[in-house]
Design a protein that fits this description.
The protein is of the alpha/beta class. The protein contains 13 helices and 10 strands. The chain has a domain of 110 residues: ATPase, nucleotide binding domain (Nucleotidyltransferase, domain 5, 2-Layer Sandwich), CATH 3.30.420. The protein is 45% helix and 21% strand. A hairpin with a 3-residue loop joins strand 6 and strand 7. The chain is globular.
């Protein structure tokens, strides 16, 4: 029986859906697969572990959308790895932004935005991107993302800019030590994922004035440095958002966007359900 495997992979986690010709679906979950932080051997090991009880010979198509898959070289790392795991399958690998565009708009136009562990934005005409920013990663870009917010919280904590009461709560919540933080950021794998993990703090203290300022600044930077860079007509293109940050900061996001006359069509936490429907219904 031919099966289709569809994957939405951020830097933090990957959601896989395996569907057969009768539209029966099975969900699988793994850590994120990002070719900037993983090599072929690591990807192959992870995928084989996740699908150890699956007949991988039956998989005829794999659609993988992932963070870090913006160029041919990085896509090639993932594609070659998946081909080893699924030898009979046609492998399609593309950036996570395309997954967002297809999940949000199908074959219609719109501006696809990601606000999760990382961030991105691009103008989608229903088939291709007509304008998009260069992704600079969490060190140089990712404005508005979990990594962007987490980095700000860490800096403010150690520089004592964060109010004392919040600093005490932050320490109690994460029990962090500077040596451990620097080791995780500069020496270990997936530092962007680690830094983004601190962004959960904002949801617990969303009414705090300092937290409001941090989140507003992050969203405003996304608007300025990402939406403000790509070219589109605000009257003709609506925005769609995918990712945990956009989902949990929905009120602030809508408020800040309205100040600049942007229109939001949809905000969803994860694209996988709409993405699976897209492939099963529109790209047979």
């Amino acid at each position: 029986m031919n099966k289709t495997l569809i994957a939405d992979s951020g830097s933090t986690k990957t959601h896989w859906v395996l569907a057969n010709s009768q539209n029966d679906k099975e969900d699988y979950y793994s850590s994120g697969i990002n070719p900037y932080f993983m090599n072929n051997a690591q990807i192959i090991e992870l995928v084989n572990e996740i699908f150890s009880y699956t007949d991988k010979q039956e998989v005829s198509n794999v659609y993988f959308y992932g963070a870090g898959c913006e160029n041919q070289d990085k896509c090639g790392i993932v594609k070659d790895s998946l081909q080893v795991c699924f030898p009979n399958a046609n492998i399609f690998v593309a950036e996570d932004l395309l997954a967002s565009a297809r999940a949000l708009f199908g074959n219609n136009k719109g501006v696809a935005c990601i606000l999760g562990t990382g961030s991105n934005a691009a103008v989608f005409d229903g088939n291709n991107f007509t304008s998009k920013i260069e992704s600079l990663g969490y060190l140089l870009g990712d404005e508005g993302s979990g990594a962007y917010i987490g980095k700000q919280l860490l800096m403010d904590y150690y520089r004592k800019i964060m109010p004392l009461e919040l600093r005490q709560s932050f320490q109690k919540e994460f029990n962090i030590k500077l040596g451990d933080v620097l080791d995780r950021v500069y020496k270990q794998e997936s530092p962007n994922r680690y830094v983004a993990s601190f962004a959960v703090f904002v949801s617990k203290y969303s009414d705090n004035e300092y937290i409001k300022a941090v989140t507003i600044n992050a969203i405003d930077d996304f608007i300025k440095y990402q939406l403000g860079v790509i070219e589109f007509d605000k009257e003709k293109y609506e925005l769609g958002f995918i990712g945990s940050i956009s989902y949990y900061l929905k009120d602030i996001l809508e408020q800040r966007l309205s100040l600049s006359d942007y229109k939001i069509a949809k905000i969803i936490k994860a694209p996988i359900t709409d993405l699976v429907n897209y492939h099963l219904e529109f790209s047979s």
